[in-house]
From TrEMBL:
Pfam families: NAD_binding_9. Residues 8-167 form the FAD-dependent urate hydroxylase HpyO/Asp monooxygenase CreE-like FAD/NAD(P)-binding domain. InterPro entries: FAD/NAD-bd_sf, HpyO/CreE_NAD-binding, L-asp_N-monooxygenase_NS-form. This is Adenylate cyclase. The lineage of its organism: Bacteria, Bacillati, Actinomycetota, Actinomycetes, Kitasatosporales.
Amino acid sequence: MSPSPSLVIVGAGPRATGLIERMAANAPELYAGSDLDIHLVDPHPPGAGRIWRQAQSPLLWMNSHAEDVTMFTDETVAMDGPVRPGPTLHEWAGIDGRTFAGRRVQGAYLGWVHEQAVAALPPGITVHHHPRRAVRVSGPRGGRQQVWLEGLTEPLTADLVVLALGHLDAEPDDEQRELAAYARTHGLTHLPPDFTADSDLSGLRPGEPVLVRGFGLAFVDLMVLLTEGRGGRHEGDTYVPSGREPVLYVGSRRGVPYHSKIGYGLDGERPPLPRFFGPPEIEELLARPGGFEFRRDVWPLVEKELGFAHYHRLFTAHPERTTVAWTDFEEKYAATTGPEERAALAAAAVPEPADRLDLAALDRPLQGVRYAGHEELQDGLRQYIEGDLTRRHDPGHSADLAVFLGLLSVYGQLVRLGDVGTSWHGFFNYMASGPPGPRLRQMLALSRAGLLRFVGADMTVHAEDGVFRASSPTVPGFHVEARALVEARLPEPTVARARDPLLRALHAEGVGETPDGLLRVDPVDGRILDPAGRPHPRRFALGPHTEVRAPGAFTRPRTGGPAFRQNDATARAALTLLRELGLDAAA
């Protein structure tokens, strides 16, 4: 008797759970009445995985409102499989939808979703969890694959393999290796890019300055763990220190924190998206004989799409702040061919500059700005953060929320183009994936307490004279020295530098990679591609290490969910192939 067909999924976090959920939804149509063994390979618990595991500080929050987090599909998802609705995080946990839940709560939700997905599989499909690390995949293109596990001499045999590895550690680049060597030589502390919850922060001493490069979500975690995590507490807008905190000197390329999460919901009409950047534009870009370049060919379309979302909302929800009818403005806006035309059109129809969309100014608010001294910068950035908080929690500026929806729409289209470079992902995260408002208020309290000091934009760090020295053109002539440097950002998800042994083995074998070092995959179903662009018949990959990255960690309900679409396509392709392999074996 031949063995049951088998599928090995490497990684047991949210992406793997989403894939299993889609397999359960599609199996009645594509795999009814047949046996199948699904092997989940991950040293961490299924569902939560590493990032959302229970064993982390209860001080760490999710970065989304509980009502904006779901693991279940709805009718807005463009997919071939059936919709299987389910509760959002706030419905499942019975908490206020505007709450920023702790990561432990999210981990519990993900564990429950995993259990539900497994229970929904039809009889004959069995899931086995292997709490180990996969180190290598071998096997011929046209034959069964072998997945080798750490510490075992016999591999798992698989008809198909799906890599759902999630976020991974990376080997340091040349700069980080040099800084680490300098730190060892001079007895300094250097923390490379990492997941802050996993970093050893014990070398950051109370009262001493610490240079921090990175002003995104990794920094927010660092800030929390080094303040509240060391016994301090927030009382209203005041921070009461424990005396165990270091002094954080933080800067980045932009020099400001990511924009606050928007603190209100959208009522009334949504912008009808996509409008200027949808399937027809994607098809045209993909059909270009010479390919496309993001900044030249894609960004102008993105910019026009986001402007449309902004002005649609402004004219329809706040018409008193405009001077012409929306229908007239829309007609002229559609006819514009460049940002200068659109800026002139907006200036003529929208009296207040604060109501016009200026993506360049939003992206680089400190561009060209100079402060006379370090204390003036502290005052200036506190005012900037306070202004951002006020605006992002004021429904009178609901055009900002429309732009957020536009960003989600754009991302949903961009996944079809594959690897579009790092600039888009950085811009998206800065605009749409910033910290909860309360975290920025805590940042202001720490600044007033003197425990958080802003360095400025285009921060540079030099290792010299036995210390780390940081400066920024935002404050000409100022610099700060420290014996500790933290790179507060996630490692780049490149195949070549991944510490994951399986990905490193694929790199050594010559798998297809993008110019930015991501795993090349078929954008339709996630099959891994070789350097010639040929899809592997038995290997798939989903997640941030691939060129088809989805926006954010989780899907917002009723936004089309590109990750859901990818999961569904991969699940259907896998079930179809497994069914055919089973039929061939039976014959």
